[in-house]
């Protein structure tokens, strides 16, 4: 079997070139062709010696993921479903804003953490994605969007590992993928613009600080352990105090001077004034230990199996005011791509419920989804 070069960071590609009897610097040229120009055909790579192109042709390939479908929202958000085999699909979402283009990437097919408010969590865990499958989402989206938007320059300026899966439970495949994103010969993204979002895998937060300290976001969602145990089951293993201490340690290596805490606003569950007051007290306690925080309040995207409801806006505003009055920087996330179920796991959950039932995908193939522009690719690869 030949090697998929999307599986390698630059160091890995240099080692691969050495195994082919080539100088390590050839890896830089090859890496640029693949990631900066989106090339997958070695014959296109005209500044590589013909002998190297022949060796590559015999021993390697550049293979992205197969696109199942593309969904374009009226607000410019684009969502892709990719086939990762064995009936599993993953999601990738592009969110354009005036000053940035953010790509939300998946790290696993499904997720084992099982957060109550998360559609992916309800689908269960299938498998970890490989480095190549993580990188492919960026590789595909960047070069597709450049072509689609008629742009020469970079379209994606930010990456958030907030799609399907808990990235820190797929650590060995995640770190090389992050290195490809950061590499100046790859996508050249700054550490501040690449965010790993975790539900709180404490030992891996410490490892990430040493191996690849990018921006960190933590899915908190509750101010005390009893409630968080219920919403984010991983809390039983790594309770809030341990998690916040790991965040304070991370901050010494982090590229930003704060950790972002995500808080999904659930009507009557975690959105009451006393919850906000508890959060303020929690953050004050940990500020003494060196933690600086920013809060991102997220409107919940309801899905039937959750039994949960979205907090109404006055409730969200009142909650935000309590945090802000205490000096905590707080933003309320805008919902994007509502018309295409852009929240994590929603569309894949509709496509596949892990019993193999696939009715909605069939409807999409026939272009039957009312009001949603659905573009179904026929086995497209870049
Ligand atoms: S919120 Fe994240 S960690 Fe929790 S179940 Fe969903 S994908 Fe997994």
TrEMBL record:
The record's comment on cofactor binding reads: Binds 1 [4Fe-4S] cluster. The cluster is coordinated with 3 cysteines and an exchangeable S-adenosyl-L-methionine.
* Positions annotated as active site in the UniProt record: 91, 344
Against PROSITE patterns, the record matches this protein to: RADICAL_SAM
Annotated S-adenosyl-L-methionine binding lies at 165-166, 197, 219-221, 301
Under the heading InterPro entries, the entry gives: Aldolase_TIM, Methyltransferase_A, RlmN_N, RNA_MTrfase_RlmN, rRNA_lsu_MTrfase_RlmN/Cfr, rSAM, rSAM_sf
Q: Which Gene3D superfamilies match?
A: 1.10.150.530, Aldolase class I
Q: Name one GO molecular function term.
A: methyltransferase activity
CDD domains, per database record: Radical_SAM (cd01335)
Q: Where does [4Fe-4S] cluster bind?
A: 111, 115, 118
The enzyme's first-digit EC class, named in words, is transferase
Short name of any one Pfam family annotated for the protein: RlmN_N
Give the record's GO biological process terms: methylation
Give the catalytic activity: adenosine(37) in tRNA + 2 reduced [2Fe-2S]-[ferredoxin] + 2 S-adenosyl-L-methionine = 2-methyladenosine(37) in tRNA + 5'-deoxyadenosine + L-methionine + 2 oxidized [2Fe-2S]-[ferredoxin] + S-adenosyl-L-homocysteine; adenosine(2503) in 23S rRNA + 2 reduced [2Fe-2S]-[ferredoxin] + 2 S-adenosyl-L-methionine = 2-methyladenosine(2503) in 23S rRNA + 5'-deoxyadenosine + L-methionine + 2 oxidized [2Fe-2S]-[ferredoxin] + S-adenosyl-L-homocysteine
Which NCBIfam families has this protein been placed in?
rRNA_mod_RlmN
Its family?
A: Belongs to the radical SAM superfamily. RlmN family.
Q: What is this protein called?
A: Dual-specificity RNA methyltransferase RlmN
